[in-house]
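Example S7 (structure tokens).
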């Protein structure tokens, strides 16, 4: 049973894009026949096939769907591009039909796990400001935005945007300790959580993509920022 790694609409959009690319390749087959540009067209097909398999591997759990597509679009070697052309053209048709069948079967696919992508459960500000970036695949930007929201919250509460200064100079106090005798542990925990976010933000600012290309890892960073934002809802500055 096929299991989706992304939301159905996102999967559908990605597959439709590959179908369009395949249909465009079908139209170019006529040009290849008229101009004897078989070799160039075969190269375009090979590129489309490899890229489509790669896309499918990002949409479905495991490699089975990508392998199925690879199987229906596989062709044998022939003595020349001209002789290979009609077989590859048929493989292209099978490939497009395979993609179209995936669109039809989307409703039967198992959706992505709520535990892995429960964006709706994030803090409202994290959700509203980071959702589109995350769902669009801009993981580094989504995470950076979430870190900035935490810093903005600290600045609003204390005038300081780093965890160390907010809890130090800003005398920030967070309500929510489980019991009076663990109050200090709780305050230290929230402080070090915000300080960790500061450190992660600094670390990721030194690379173009923040070293975040995995959606699950990106979600975990968003969850970290969300926890901080939820905890800071019960925070006040006790500075005189």
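Recovered sequence:
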């Amino acid at each position: 049973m096929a299991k989706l790694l992304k939301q159905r609409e996102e999967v559908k959009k990605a597959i439709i894009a590959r179908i369009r690319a395949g249909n465009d390749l079908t139209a170019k087959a006529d040009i290849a026949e008229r101009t004897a540009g078989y070799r160039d067209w075969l190269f375009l097909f090979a590129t489309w096939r490899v890229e489509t398999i790669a896309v499918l591997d990002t949409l479905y759990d495991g490699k089975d769907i990508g392998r199925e597509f690879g199987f229906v679009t596989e062709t044998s070697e022939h003595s020349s591009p001209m002789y290979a052309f009609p077989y590859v053209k048929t493989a292209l048709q099978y490939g497009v039909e395979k993609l179209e069948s995936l669109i039809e079967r989307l409703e039967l696919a198992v959706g992505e796990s709520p535990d892995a992508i429960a964006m709706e459960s994030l803090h409202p500000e994290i959700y509203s400001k980071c959702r589109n970036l995350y769902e669009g695949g801009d993981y580094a930007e989504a995470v950076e935005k979430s870190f900035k929201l935490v810093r903005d919250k600290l600045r609003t509460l204390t005038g300081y945007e780093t965890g160390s200064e907010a809890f130090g100079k800003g005398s920030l106090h967070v309500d929510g300790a489980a019991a009076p005798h663990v109050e200090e542990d709780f305050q230290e925990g929230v402080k070090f959580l915000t300080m960790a976010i500061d450190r992660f933000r600094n670390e990721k600012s030194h690379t173009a993509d923040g070293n975040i290309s995995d959606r699950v890892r990106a979600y975990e960073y968003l969850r970290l920022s969300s926890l901080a934002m939820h905890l800071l809802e019960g925070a006040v500055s006790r500075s005189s």
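Notes on this example. The chain has a mean pLDDT of 90.
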